[in-house]
Amino acid sequence: MKNAIMFTLCLLIFVQCKEEAKEFPVLDLDGSHPTKTLAISDLVTNLRAVRLETTEESLLPAFFNYLAGEKYIITYSRDNIMQFTSQGKFIRILSKKGNGPGEFNNVASLVMDNSEEKLYLSHMGSNELLVFDLASGYPKDEISIPDKAARMVFVNDEEILAFGYPFGDYKRFSVNVNTTEIKDSIKFEEAEEKPMGNRITWISKASDQVYSLFPESDTLYRYADNEFVPELYLLFSNQVDPNKTSTGRSLQFPMNGTNHMLLGTHDVSMEMSNGFVRMKNSGENPRIFYFDKVKQKLFEVSILEDDLMKKDMEYLFDLRQQGDHISIKYTALDIIEHLEANPALESYVSDLFDGYEFNEDDNPVLVMGKVF
Questions:
Q1: Whole-prediction pTM
Q2: Nearest-angstrom CA–CA distance, 203 and 209
Q3: Where along the chain do its domains lie?
Q4: Helix (H) or strand (E) holding 140
Q5: Is the pLDDT assigned to residue 39 strictly greater than 90?
């Protein structure tokens, strides 16, 4: 009898602990949910459109990436890194591709510090962080790190959280930019672990909280005190297998704020290309979800409108978050074609850009805002 009671108590404790470990939201991305229409202005503050200045020196290639902050916009391509003001005025070329001092060999990732005084660059040429002074544009320092960083974010004023590429050792580490101290033993709290069918890490910052979703996990984590703690669990089936030719669904995680989150799923296929399995985004059958963190409720978004450009967004490919800022990139041709299809908007867009008339080869426009 005594043994039976002890067994029952142990079983109850085990079940209770297991339930306690599961006490975080479960977002069912397979099921049906109430629908909701959203505008970008529902998700951010200080929504604005920024036209990146076009000069002979600042002309951007067709394919480039960028960081968007409060003070500066940093663009980077295979050939150079450029600095613009947050109003789009070209300042300078910060760095060029090469092997000399202050030069880079294929950008891995970039991050600005919280005050946007310095730019930290990880590139494929070395395991060194290049540090640029954004006031002068000069290379300032180099910091040794354990691996090239595919993703970086400032946790606070002095700590960068960094993630290596999802092959090899796939290091996760932090670096103190003042002392150059490295912490490479970041802990994980127990959580559900299943492949998400993605080869990259999503990382975002809302207020002072850093969140991340990893390729091998179906759990969204929050980073605190050198440890990743589960924040919510994603129920998401028919995930594509990233390691073999296959078809299925893939996840987009473009925005995570203090009060809300935006997610999307769509069809993809993994195809063989030059001896490697690569993801091909078909973009078919997209679904967009909005999670209200305050009410703890998940909605399916029927319409997502960029209400500044008066344009519906069917996909989330072009919506991106860096730190607590989100942005959408429109090429000059996108704007010209949008106006041709909607001539009634010509006066509105003209006023939005102070009467500027776009040419097809102009630099793009960024619609920007700060997540709350």
A1: 0.86
A2: 11
A3: 24-371
A4: strand 139-144
A5: yes
